[in-house]
Amino acid sequence: MARKKRCELGASCPYQHEGQHQAEYYHTASPARREGRRGRRLGGAGATTTARRGATTAARRGSSRQTPQRTPRATSRRSPIVIDDSPDRTASLDDDDVELISPPPRARSVPEAPKGRSYEEDLAKALALSKADNDRAIARAQDAEFEASLAEDRRKASKRDRDDLERREQAELERALAASKEEDDRARDTRKRAKKAEFQTVQEPTDDVVRVRLRLPDGRALERRFDRSTASLADLRDFVEAMASTAPKNFALVDAASRNRITGDGSLATLASGASIALLVVDVDA
């Protein structure tokens, strides 16, 4: 069993009645105090006081037997406190021998009351917050309008770029078509002049011929004799292009009797079985 230690506070220790504290410390003020308490138990210097208290207790008990109507006063006794490991070092403490000292009450800190604001301060703060919210809302609206305007400008710029590109491409296509048409016209004029010179220099055949009469859209007529065995429908078209200055660029040959359109480049003999044939020059684009 561990030896108890002496409490530095002595008899004034406020924790001397707690079980855990009593098991570890003893609270006698001095060795003389301990000897006096041992005398009470073992018959030493304190035996007289113990005997006196025993006699007083017996007298009280006797008086309680004579007067049963009186209720005896209850006495409080504590169990012996072991001071050290020796069996003779025990003492009994009464309530009269111990002065209970309670610890001083702990001072509670009172929280400081918050400082109140006046109505004007609260109103000014609320107005400032409302103004800040309003400013932020206005800034967000302005940013949204700016972004929308910027997006619209980008869309218009992109549309202008696309329109410009389409116009440039269309202009290039038109220039290419015009150049091709001009080239075709020059080639046609060259061929027309060559064919015209050929028809003017070559004499008309006299044997086994077919007389072809052509009516132009403006009412004028062309007439020429062609060799039945060697002439073709292509020769008839070349004759119209070379000799008729008012002939349309795109024309077709139509049989004047049957009103059938003549196609192909076959021999003239397949078209005309007789000595002559009448054809109409029709403008295809009209």
Automatic annotation (TrEMBL):
Domain UBX per the UniProt entry, residue ranges: 205-253
InterPro entries: Ubiquitin-like_domsf, UBX_dom, UBX_domain-protein, UIM_dom
Basic and acidic residues bias (residue ranges): 151-188
Region (Disordered): 18-121, 147-200
GO molecular function: ubiquitin binding
Record field: compositional bias (Polar residues): 64-78
Composition bias, Low complexity: 47-61
Superkingdom of the organism of origin: Eukaryota
SMART domains hit by this protein: UBX, UIM
Name of the protein in question: UBX domain-containing protein
Species, as recorded: Chrysophaeum taylorii
